[in-house]
Specification:
- The protein has 116 residues and is mainly α.
- The chain has one domain (4-108): Serine Threonine Protein Phosphatase 5, Tetratricopeptide repeat, CATH 1.25.40.10.
- The protein is built from six helices and no strands.
- Helix 4 packs parallel to helix 6 and helix 5 runs antiparallel to helix 6.
- The longest helix has 18 residues, at 75-92.
- The mean pLDDT is 93.
Length: 116
């Protein structure tokens, strides 16, 4: 597990690339994951949304966005992200991502275990 200093340095390095030639969906997902790992769920959700502005068909970004929104306390927004992500994943044939998001959605809708 990285130290707080290592985590902050990694996050800073990722942020430094935003807006540059390497900016894109993958960079924003990586930054979102780093922020989520440090408990910055609102900021993570912002980065996952940025990733989706680059590529609205990025199934994993929808999945991570839903989790970040849920952990930030917004169940309705999490459910919305997962519903939209399921549609994207199904259209792309991304069965694993679709399955995972369906499980998450069922859990918050009261049809499965409460943990995520």
């Amino acid at each position: 597990m990285p130290s707080r200093i290592e985590h902050d340095a990694r996050t800073a390095a990722l942020r430094a690339q935003c807006g540059g030639p390497r900016d894109g969906a993958l960079l924003r997902v990586l930054l979102g994951q780093a922020l989520a790992a440090s408990g910055e769920h609102l900021a993570a959700a912002d980065e996952f949304e940025a990733a989706l502005r680059f590529d609205a068909h990025y199934s994993a970004a929808w999945k991570f966005l839903g989790k970040a929104r849920l952990l930030a306390g917004n169940r309705a927004a999490a459910a919305d992200a997962w519903r939209r992500g399921i549609a994207v994943a199904d259209a792309r044939g991304d069965a694993q991502a679709s399955k995972e998001m369906r499980v998450f959605l069922r859990r918050i809708e009261g049809h499965g275990p409460a943990s995520t």
